[in-house]
Every structure is written in C-alpha cells, then in structure tokens.
Amino acid sequence: MISRIDQDHSRFREIVRGKVRENLRRYMSRGDIIAPSSKGTVTIPMPQITIPRFSFGGKGKGGVGQGEGEPGDPISGEEEGQKGGPGEAGEGEGDKALEVEVSLEELAEILGEELGLPRIEPRGSDSLETRKDRYVGLRTTGPESLRSFKATYKRALKRQISMGTYNPAKPVIVPIREDRRYRSWRSDPRPDSNAVIIYMMDVSGSMGDEQKEIVRIESFWIDTWLRSQYKGIESRYIIHDATARQVEREVFFRTRESGGTMISSAYRLCNEIIDAEYSPENWNIYAFHFSDGDNWSVDDTSSCISLLRGELFPKVNQFGYGQVESPYGSGQFIKDLRAAFSAEEALICSEIKGRDEIMDSIREFLKRGR
Fold first, then answer.
1. How many Å separate Cα 265 from the centre of its chain?
2. In terms of CB atoms within 10 Å, which of 60, 132, 154, 265 comes out highest?
3. pTM attached to this predicted model
C-alpha cells in the first residue's frame, strides 16, 4: 500500500515535470543547468511553484463562513502589513526560489515527449554481446558463499520430520551434509547497444564565445537524449581551424583560435577515428559538426563533399551539421551541403540563429529516430 508521503511526493514530482515541460524552451537556452552532479542529476530553479497550504485567521474573527466579505471575494490570507509592494526595508524573510533535482533520465524523457522524438532504432548489427549471470536453481554442491540458508533449512526440516526426530517442543534443526543446497547460475548472452558521438567544432577566429556557448548547450541536450537510448555510449571531440585535432571535452568548449578554416581536416580526422576504433558493424555512430559556415576555399568544400559521400555517410547513423549564426561568418557552407546532398537521408542540416532556436535545432536533428 502506497503511503501518504509517497503519494504527496509523486504528486509534487508531477507538478515539477509539468513545469519543466512548460518552460523547456527557456531551460534549453540557459547554460547554468547543464552541469550534471555526481548523482546524475541537474538542479533546476523553479520560483513559480507554489506549495498549497492552509491559512488560519486570528482568534475572535468568527467561525466557518463568517466575517466580512462577499461571495466570490478572494481569500488572500494576508495579515495587515504583510502585503507586497514598495516600502521600507524590513527584517522578515522574502520569497525564495525553489530548486529541484531532476535526473538525466527523466530530463531525457521530458525532452522526448515535448519534442515528439521517436525512440531510436539502432541500425545493422547494432549490439555487442555481453554476458549476464543469473541464478536459475539449486544444486547439492557449490561454494559456501552460495549456500541457500532457506533451502538448506527446509531440506533438513523435511528430513527430520520424515525420520521422526523433529520435536515441536524443542524445534532444533540441525542440517547435515546431504541437506545443504547451493544456488546455481547460468550465464546468458545479452545484447548491449553501443553508440559513439563525435562532435566537431570550428574554433577559428570567426566563432565567438556566444557561438561556442550555443554549441555547448546543444551538445548537452543531444547527449542527454542519445544516452537515454543506448546502454553504452562514448563521446569524442574534435576542434579545427586550418587543422584538426582530437581533444578532451573541457578543451573542446574552451578553446579559441584565430587561424583560418579548413573543414575537411575535421572530417578526415573523424573518419580516421571511426576506422581505428568504431567499426560500423558493432557501433551506432553519430557525428555532429558545428560551424559558422565559413570555409577556406571552394576546393576544400569539394574535399568535404567527397569525404562525406565516399567515407562518412556509409558509416554513420546520422551526420548533423549545425550552422551557428555569427556576425563574421558567411554562412555559405550549409548552402553547399544542401545543394550537394538534397536527397541524402544520413545528413541533417540545421541553422541556429540564437539560443532561442536551440530547441528547434535539436528537434530537427533527432526527429528521424535514426
């Protein structure tokens, strides 16, 4: 039977869930909630949640339904001198924002519901085989650490009753060697879906701090959704200007260069990482590239198109290109991709003009369920 406190907690979680859905676009444009704690949760401020409570009047103010007022008047519950508004400084407490913890799994579920995202169907040979030990029965031999006390006791009790040595007035059960029972197990092969996400970002001089912050926020939400779809997932990070290199996550979001841009260097390194570590037969591969749309030359754009068509598209579940609007970028690259791959299912292009469009961009990237 569910206790009253559990019912109240469940009701409160539903309120929180509704508020997160209601304000999801605003939360997705903020960067202060995307640092998961060690418990796998994020803290979300919710000053708009009001906890219902009774307000009692003072003595001598009448009984139930008595006192001044007309039907329909609001019950404010405010004593004189407690109303809000301008006034002098006081010593009482003010309103406080309520902070609630939401697990990443629940956050992903809310994201999927609000954006209408389909569950991902892993492609091809999508699983690596692991083995799970499961206890399936009892046997007469085994290590003492696996001895079943309950089964051994029942066996000894039955033996003593059948032999007439059991005394109800003095119910002492003494198991012998033949009474001992040990748990037996079986190792079952279990498919374990695995995926890798390869993030690439242009860090040339035209990509400013705001553009990189948009990439950081969007990457967090993409990560949150994909991790809810796979049991095992890895991430790789590539930054590039005129050359590309693989870096750690912290470096990925905090590096700023001032050189030119050769996008093909990132695509070439991405392909090398896949060939060396992630066979498409065993891994679901997702690649996301973020840039402001500037590239060094038409020839390098041609190299990018050749790498995508001949190498990357056949290997990945999906390749996402997100173009972040920058006052210094030309925005030409997304036009070239759309012209070259108008019918390519593995490619999804998204234009991100600001933080308010992060939610729409994520929906565009993930709506196909690939």
1. 30
2. 265
3. 0.64
Closest CA to 21 of 50, 52, 44: 44
* Mean per-residue pLDDT of the chain: 79
* C-alpha triplet 326, 327, 330: angle, nearest 5°: 75
pLDDT tens digits, 278-294: 999 888 999 999 999 98
Q: How many CA atoms lie within 13 A of 17 on its CB side?
A: 18
Q: Can you tell me the distance from the alpha carbon of 324 to that of 348, in angstroms, rounded to the nearest whole number?
A: 14
pLDDT above 90 for 310: yes
What CATH fold (topology level) applies to the domain 192-366?
A: Rossmann fold (3.40.50)
* C-alpha of 135 from chain center: 32
Report the distance separating Cα 94 and Cα 105, nearest Å.
34
pLDDT at 228: 85
Site of tokens 């003010």: 94
Per-residue confidence (pLDDT) for residue 319, from 0 to 100:
96
Rounded distance, CA 313 to CA 145, Å? Answer: 52
Exposure string of 252-289, with b = 16+ CB inside 10 Å and e = fewer, is: bbebebeebbbbbbbbbbbbebbeeebebeebbbbbbb
Within 8 A by CB and 6+ apart from 124, the residues are: 280, 281
Residue of 277, 215, 269, 223 lying closest to 242 (CA atoms): 269
Domain boundaries, the chain: 1-51+98-116, 128-188, 192-366
Q: What's 204's DSSP letter?
A: S
Give the closest residue to 225 by CA, choosing from 108, 121, 317, 115. 108
Section 1-10 average pLDDT: 58
Which region among 85-89, 247-251, 304-308, 321-325 has the lowest average model confidence (pLDDT)?
85-89
- With a pLDDT cut of 90, the percent of the chain lying above it is 27
